Amino acid sequence: MLPSSNPSPQVADSHHHSPEKSKKLELKTTLHSLKSHISAHRCAWLTATVFLQLLIILFLNRASSPPSLPSTHRPKFESDIATHRHNFKSGAVATPMYDESCKFGRIYMYDLPTMLNKDLLDNCHNLDLWSSRCNAVSNMGSTDPTSLYLNPPLVSNGGFGPPATGLDGIIPVNLTLAWYWTDMYIAEVIYHDRMMNYKCRTLNQNQAIAFYIPFYVGLAVGKYLWFNHTSKDRDYHSEVMLNWVKDQPPWKTSNGSDHFIMLGRLTWDFRRLSDNDNEWGTKFIYMPLMKNVLRLTVERSRWDELEISVPYPTAFHPRSESDIRQWQNLIRLKNRPNHLSFVGATRKEIKNDFRGVLMNYCKSESSFCKIVDCSITQCYDGAPSILEAFLDSNFCLQPKGDGFTRRSAFDCMLAGAIPVFFWRGSFEHQYQWHLPKSAETYSVFIDHKDVRNDTTIIRRVLEKYSRQEIEKMRNTIIDFLPRLLYSRSNADLGSIEDAFDIAMEGVLRRFKRQKMAAGGQRLV
């Protein structure tokens, strides 16, 4: 028999389906395929939904204000005066370049290497060849040089120096905490400290119209001004600063034309003409990189348009508007038994010393002129004897100081006395942002040449002023007096602007005008 032609059932099932079985298998296969397709689309849909939600969250976060920074990165403008720590840190707050309180723009302050400012204070016993400067830059209250050398202050008290003492019976008790023995050449530290809390300071370079360099060049060069030092010694810190600042982006943009610095000493200390070791001072101002930098200084050169003079620091640093008003009322009503006073000492090493001329004149007119001889009486930083003499006088004689100007003139006006100048350079082209344009409204000028010829001219000139004229001049001084004061960094003076505020507004106004002129605009 021949073998059967039908395949085995298993083989037949695998190749030849009946119509009913084929339909069932097709339906089953279709369902599996559809289920798989739906699962894949569902996965993709879920993924897209999640991704869309993430995009929405990111968009909302970017539109809202940023979260608070960690405490280690929060901006810190307040200088820690209460704990006597000078704050050299910086932070950041996003602010517009101009607003109602800062209509002329904002200032960015560089964070310099500490050797250019803070380290100088920490090593204050090395700032002077003859004595420690620690008492001048600290508020530790100690006057013992040995103690200050062994324990130099870590802080500067904003540059005010130690609290004033010995003022009992001279000023009201409640004002004594506003008085300090402040060094006449310490403005670099005062301006740096004030900038820490300045309302128009910004920590964003792109928001600034002016850039402040807090370099203590006067303190740095101080001990090198005298013998046994080379010109390189005197220029060292200045060159370090300029080599650092020239690499900063704002400097590269402007070549320093929107930068400014405070010079704590007279301008003449920074104008050495050669590299001769025997020549006085540093050549800081004449260094090529300084050619565009604006400079604030306690005495300017009248021929330098990049210099602005600002008041010398005095001993009174008001804590509030109330302090200022109380002091103004006191000096306005003060009884003044002396018509005239002279505070100073003769300089025997100077031929025909004019101070000696004034000293001899006052000795011959003792009923008319009160003398405080600083070769006998201590005359440090606004000492009680100085303040008392000026408070008791209508006029005060003001010869030249180390330059044409003199810190004593500001001590005189602080007490409500009227300064008598003998050189036009003592008031002309000086303090133009702070003093009235008309010097005759607050001072008297008698040419020093006329005094040398006949000292009696002093009395003849001053006796021509009536009581009413004297009171008018005094009231003028009392009215502008706040513009000559440096308040504490955290002081609330209300609507009053002090010397620092006036100086910063002047800087900002100048740089804004400069910027607008470059763009073809004009500042009204």
Automatic annotation (TrEMBL):
GO:BP terms for this protein? xyloglucan biosynthetic process
Basic and acidic residues: bias regions? 13-25
Entry keywords, A to Z = Glycosyltransferase, Golgi apparatus, Membrane, Signal-anchor, Transferase, Transmembrane, Transmembrane helix
Residues annotated as coiled-coil are none
GO MF = galactosyltransferase activity
Q: How does it sit in the membrane?
A: Single-pass type II membrane protein
The keyword Transmembrane helix is annotated on this UniProt entry: yes
- Identify this protein by name: Acetylglucosaminyltransferase EXT1/exostosin 1
What species was this sequence derived from? Answer: Handroanthus impetiginosus
Q: What is the lineage of its organism?
A: Eukaryota, Viridiplantae, Streptophyta, Embryophyta, Tracheophyta
